[in-house]
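Exam revision sheet. Question 4 asks you to relate a sequence to its structure. Input first:
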Amino acid sequence: MKYCIWNNKGGVGKTFLTYCLSVEYAIVNPNKTVVVVDMCPQANVSEMLLGGNGLGEINLANCYDNNRTIASYIKSRYDKSRFGKIGDELNYFVRVRDYNQNMPNNLFLLPGDTDLDICSSIIDYLASAPERGAWMKSRVFLSDLIGAFEAGKKDAPVFFIDSNPSFANYTQLGLIASDSLIVPCTADSASIRGIYNILRLVYGIKVGNNVSDENIFDTFNTKIHDAGVNPPKIHSFVLNKARTTHREASAAYRAHVDEIVNIILGLSRNYTDKFTEMKNDTRIFNIKDCNTLAPVLNFTGLPPSGLTPIQYEIYGQKTQVNKTQIDPFMENLKNLISLI
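Answer key, structure tokens:
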């Protein structure tokens, strides 16, 4: 399976969720090959996996120097074989444990790269080539990479694709390469708009207020439909930064959460063909607010389950992690992993 973690809104915790899901899924399933694909120019999930702030930055720079990133591959495709594989696809993946000894041995990474924004121009240039199907051929670079990695494995690897909040063409590469979509949200009206934007941009479904009738918004859906390619089905919605209990939340927070839940339930009933089948009716998950845990994991590059209730030193400052923070977060995370 290939899961894309995306919302057309920034600040909803896509990268942190990708990190936690992939690492803990790999730990819980040691016999499975797990791959993180970093499709965000900021490359934050790569830095975290490769050792956290500091060490991870150095290791990521090493990947840049050795041309082992998604942007390196796109550039190579442009130089060598614009609309076909180049034969060295496996060289762009790294085993995370080779850089970060805290990580499980079955976890791999296709590193991100700040040059993805430069590659965006390359993708658009190839899409406009005077060749039949050029647009679609420009959007399958990541699918080709993933396919090459899968072909070299006896098992069926599980992929987690971190994405940029924009609907840039490199975000589209991630969506086209994935089977399922996990949508992180926060309790605010912008997340509601983000959900509506996903329905419009990916599936061509016009819902919500102030919906434009301009067909330009439906280009992606129209083009993949014409090419016979299906978009990923929606797997779940993750309410990131949730309160420990609903009672502790403010009335405004509860109102936004209730509205998001009602919207999601309505969408899953009205557009069942756009959603994956689930083991039960659970479609919405809570992930506890991690204002303390997230910076610690970012800095240390530890697995979430490797956190202990001690003081961690972050940039010379002592930060206390408590069991009351770890336990609810890990319980929430395990609930989501159990349905992947």
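Marking note for examiners. The CA atoms of residues 189 and 256 lie 7 Å apart.
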